[in-house]
Design goal:
By secondary structure, this protein is mainly α. Helix content is about 60%, strand content about 0%. It contains 12 helices and no strands. The longest helix has 15 residues. The N and C termini lie far apart (about 75 Å).
């Protein structure tokens, strides 16, 4: 009895799984040695004895379950940390989907847009284009603005601290069409 007293339940079950062969008496041997783990050994033996055919095609229920799982994975929302670490291309691609100038994407990445100046409808559109929940986008925009290191290194003047501005101002400075500007900002 003292021989197996140092083995844990997990050690015994792992050893049993390695030794198990259906009908070879392995289960009986382990049951007689380790009666305290009889329920777990029987359950494991049943699991290991279960037969399945790899050549059988998946049923429609199985395929539906796989499709549902894949859809959930594909629709996984981006986190605040992932949004902060995302490259500029992520933001510029998102605003291109909406027909907005690249400057908006860069301003979003650098957190220079004041969240209170963006309508809820525009926030929802931006969040959807970024594959992020609205609250994550709002949390990202609420962080302090950051200045672009790339633009600072190319500038001939000393860079100033980044400040938050309205989305409308960024769109106007980017030369966004007045009709499109009005439609985007007021499209509730």
């Amino acid at each position: 009895m003292t021989e197996h007293s140092t083995h844990t339940r997990e050690d015994i079950l792992n050893e049993f799984a390695m030794d198990f062969e259906p009908g070879a008496g392995v289960l009986q041997r382990y049951l007689s040695r380790y009666p305290e783990y009889s329920l777990q050994l029987v359950d494991l033996a049943r699991e290991l004895s279960r037969e399945f055919d790899d050549d059988t095609p998946l049923s429609t229920d199985d395929l539906a379950a796989v499709d549902a799982g894949m859809s959930r994975l594909q629709k996984a929302w981006i986190s605040l940390q992932a949004l902060q670490a995302a490259p500029a291309k992520t933001f510029t691609d998102a605003v291109k989907k909406l027909g907005l100038p690249i400057q908006v994407g860069l301003a979003l990445r650098e957190r220079r847009i004041e969240a209170s100046t963006v309508s809820s409808r525009a926030l929802a559109k931006l969040a959807q284009a970024l594959d992020a929940p609205v609250d994550v986008l709002l949390a990202h925009m609420a962080l302090p603005p950051q200045k672009s290191q790339l633009r600072a290194s190319k500038s001939s003047t000393k860079p100033v601290a980044a400040e938050k501005v309205s989305l409308e101002r960024i769109l106007r400075e980017a030369g966004y069409d007045e009709d499109a500007l009005s439609k985007f900002l007021n499209d509730e």
